[in-house]
Amino acid sequence: MTFNIVINTDDKYLQHAMAMLCSLYENNREHYIIVHILHKGLSEVAKNLLVELSNRYENRVVFYTVDDRKLEGVQFRKKRPLSMAAYYRLLLSSVLPKDLDKVLYLDCDMIVIRNIQEIFKIEIDNYALAATLDFFPYTEKHRLQLHMEVGERTFCSGIMMVNLKYWRENNVEPGLIEYAKRHREEVYLHDQDVLNYYFKKKWFLLPPKWNHTAGNLRIATQPELKKFDYMAYAKEPMIYHYASVGIKPWYNAPTPDKNLYVEYLEKSGYPTVKYEKKPLSVRARLTILTLKYNIKRQILMLLFRFHLMGGGNS
Questions:
Q1: Among 4, 33, 71, 79, which one is least packed by beta carbons within 10 Å?
Q2: C-alpha–C-alpha distance, residues 110 and 86, integer Å
Q3: Which residues in 38-67 are b (16+ Cβ under 10 Å) and which e?
Q4: Which 3 state secondary structure label does DSSP give 141?
């Protein structure tokens, strides 16, 4: 089976992109994978490393230099702003080939640990995209900004099966860009806010196993999930996503599920591995946090097993 994957990266994030792609290739060897890489100014050294990694697994990479003039004027938050590249995913329908109807978008701060064929078989003809649940808006102001009802679900834009045919038929790009540029008193989640604003009630909810967020076990608060959803998330997730602020596996400190990042980064052959140095106080805090996370995960797995044995929703 052929998988079409899209990512955006730059030289600064290359190390993480190499780890993620290596994990994707390593655990999907029976499939042919075409990775579409959106960038602006990616160095030739970086391109060569990405091509060499793909060639090793007999896959293919295609590079797209993004003309980001369309994005001039998009809004950024004042604290911890993302780069312009975060908004590149708004341009997928015009940048990617017109004969490509569906593509899986993946953030680079992920590790894929299983065969992902299943997600390509999900029918999303009547949806703009498929994604996993996220836990926002964060404030009443945020909810009003997104024009959302109380209790309305929102999704994470870090992993999305994008229905490009739907995007093109409904000419969504101008509307996405318009909202991205719209003045907001406070910017919260950049592209994720844009996509959630525009695609309200037009997205397909994926099970949480597709987005296991390191350090975050809030899935246990979702009563609509089935027993097998709980177990898959806790025991057999498909993708680990290092999205938690201040808890990254490239720190020189213990962090949840860091071993997976280290494993695939080493396998990728990335030549200049660097771990971001943190002061002793931060390393101590992360050590305690990781210990607590591991204990909580074990407790949750025991509870899930007890739930499975004792009945409950199926």
A1: 79
A2: 15
A3: bbeebeeebeebbeebbeebebebeebebe
A4: helix
Q: How far apart are CA 84 and CA 72, in angstroms?
A: 9
The yes-or-no verdict on residue 313 having pLDDT over 70 is no
pLDDT digits (tens, 9 = 90+) for 176-222: 999 999 988 888 899 999 999 999 999 999 999 999 986 566 665 67
Instruction: Give the integer Cα–Cα distance in Å for 246 and 225.
Output: 28
Sign of CA dihedral 112, 197, 185, 133: negative
Reported as type and span, the H/E element at residue 6 is strand 2-8
Are the C-beta atoms of residues 190 and 86 closer than 8 Å to each other?
A: yes
Q: Kindly give, in sequence order, each residue whose CB lies less than 8 Å from that of residue 107, ignoring residues fewer than 6 positions away.
A: 7, 20, 158, 159, 241, 243
In the structure encoding, which two tokens stand for residue 144, read together? 């009003």
